[in-house]
Specification:
By secondary structure, this protein is mainly beta. The strands form two sheets. Strands 3-2-5-6 form a four-stranded antiparallel beta sheet, with no helix packed on it. It is globular and about 40 Å long.
Length: 148
């Protein structure tokens, strides 16, 4: 074997070890929101881990990540989704206040929604498990619901 190439097997092995020991970033997740009553303002979409506080309220909670998009084009893309269980919630921020609008009881009058589109309302409280995203999902759609 030519002396110039005698270290190639060793270099290949080292390169393989470096690749396998390096943490590969998690997948991205595209979220599209349907069912908005108009194209005013923004949609705000949040990704939550189980330990994050304030689920599902994107306005006052502390989600892992929060993105907004114009209601006229209600789609966002999250990168580097964590490997643990996540849930997704959203609200239609028609007035761009950064918080969902509520009635005198504190119930949202803005469009709201969760991944998997479960029934939500005064008698069906939103839970992390109802909004849990299947591991490895690349894209989801959420239908906005206007409770009042």
């Amino acid at each position: 074997m030519n002396n110039r190439f005698r270290h190639l097997p060793t270099l290949g092995l080292l390169a393989g070890l470096l690749v396998t020991s390096h943490t590969i970033p998690a997948d991205a997740l595209d979220v599209t929101v349907n069912g908005l009553r108009n194209t005013q303002g923004d949609v705000v979409v949040c990704v939550w881990r189980a330990q994050d506080k304030g689920f599902p309220n994107c306005g006052t909670g502390r989600p892992w990540k929060k993105l907004a998009a114009p209601a006229a084009n209600p789609s966002v893309a999250f990168g580097d989704i964590p490997p643990e269980a996540i849930a997704v919630s959203m609200f239609h921020d028609e007035q761009r206040t950064g918080k969902p609008q509520t009635n005198f009881l504190g119930m949202p009058t803005s469009g709201v929604g969760l991944a998997n589109n479960p029934d939500i309302g005064p008698m069906n409280r939103p839970t992390f498990d109802k909004a849990r995203v299947v591991p490895g999902a690349k894209a989801i759609e959420i239908t906005a619901k206007y409770l009042f």
